[in-house]
Amino acid sequence: MARNVYGPGVRMGNWNEDVYQEEERLRHFLEKREKGELLIQRNRRLKKHILRPLQLSVSEDGYVHYGDKVILVNPDHVLTEEAGVFMRGDLSLCMSPDEIKAQLNDDLEIPCGVTAVPTIAPIGRNTFTILSNNANSCNVGQVVVYGQDFCLGIPAGLEGKMLYLTSDHRTLLKSSVKSWLQEVTLTDTVTHLNWWQAAFLNPQLRLEYEGFPVRANEKIVIYHRHTNRALAVHRNLSLRYDTGRCRRVLYWLRVMHN
């Protein structure tokens, strides 16, 4: 009785071409590893860049200045009668790049998303620099006052290109995830949509504090100049990323220094 002696190890057909293709794949893999183009290498470089520890600016006079490195924190507050899961603790504003697209290129995708995460440790993804816009021409070290325009920049990507916090009116095709409110992103384009203003927390005293310097570590309201909408955090709307559980932004925040 005849027996079938063929198996997976038996070379049939163009076996010589298969050997060449396997050698070519191995050579291509070694070349990408030497150049650092493997996905795991790109992923490690990305996380090393955005999770690197940084130092915040030290305020000697107790005020916020242009050029200071700060983090924007939504402080913890008393739980109210809100439906759904409510996240407690201090949440800091940080960038949230697309994990898949960020591993394919050294530069982050533009526009880059932002979220709020439960940490106040200054790292590469949540440390912003207070910058002057082209209109007021404020020098580095000048005190920021209530009602004055400023920009919030953060270096991103392996080349350290500056990205600016920006926003615009919501439309049917462009809005924030889950909340369907005005979207906030990071962009490399310098426009008037990157301008923000600080307002005093108490609305009854807001007009009287116009033009006064902003104190460090004080609760304030950050308004978008173009849309007059305040930066906020929706604590009952959660999104999950590879770097952990995040929250999509905007609510009143606190500027923190060392």
From TrEMBL:
Task: Output the Gene Ontology cellular-component terms.
Answer: cytoplasm
Query: Which SUPFAM superfamilies is this protein grouped with?
Result: MIR domain
Question: Do you know which InterPro entries this protein is assigned to?
Answer: CF161 (IPR055325), MIR_dom_sf (IPR036300)
| The protein's name | Cilia and flagella associated protein 161
